[in-house]
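Sequence in, structure out. Go.
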Amino acid sequence: MPKYLFNGYSFPLRYPAVMGILNLTPDSFSDGGNFLDPVLACERAYQMVEKGAQIIDLGGESTRPGSDPVSEGEEIRRVLPVLERLPSDRFLISIDTTKPKVAQMALESGAHIINDVSGGQDQLLGLAQQFRAGFVLMHSQGLPKDMQKKPTYVNTVEEIRTFFEKKKDQIQGLGLPRTWIDPGIGFGKTLAHNLELMRNLEAFLDDAWGVLLGSSKKSWIDHLCDAPEPRDRLGGSIASAIDAVSKGVEIVRVHDVRETVQALKVAKELATKG
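Output:
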């Protein structure tokens, strides 16, 4: 079991690791508005950890397709009261943000990982180096407001793999405790693009990084299975998590922690030769 020193705190990580999603927003596609109260948000974080999440991913700005950005001040207003209430020495805390000031505030408040959906901004990578934080580098074609209008690739897997390869020297030069790449399911991709990426996750494995997948409850499941309501996408979410882990993915980012942890445990046991 590898052990990492993130932002001054030592944590072991058991792979596969489950990252529990905690949206502190009024407009996220799955649970927007449910955890605006910091006390309720913290209760939710503890519940997910109790159910098996090793990482809690806090987000103060929705990045669902069509969403509008929020101000730096508003994002901090949503996130800071929760960070101030959560312990930094009991479980890993990730801050899902594209804003350097929000990331800095979170790291100063004890967060351990920056989850950057904007593709690895230099300022955010610099903060990760400064604080010795973990880093998630996600691919996106376009911004949330318009990224799903007409996403286009010639060779989806090759182009996104090349995007990460161009970042490799920079990432390795920073000497971060651990970096993960995320192919960005649903971020500037059609159903066909998403499926191609998930079928070929092994193409992203590399000694320079781990792979994280965030496919939980996203609209690709609706397009494939006719499930317009996010609450009806649990089966597809779990199936994609099991498949991803079987292909070498280290972290799955999910809404339903208990069910995912249980499914991964059963899948692991069934794959073990007696």
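Check: The chain has one domain: 3-8+15-269. The mean pLDDT is 94.
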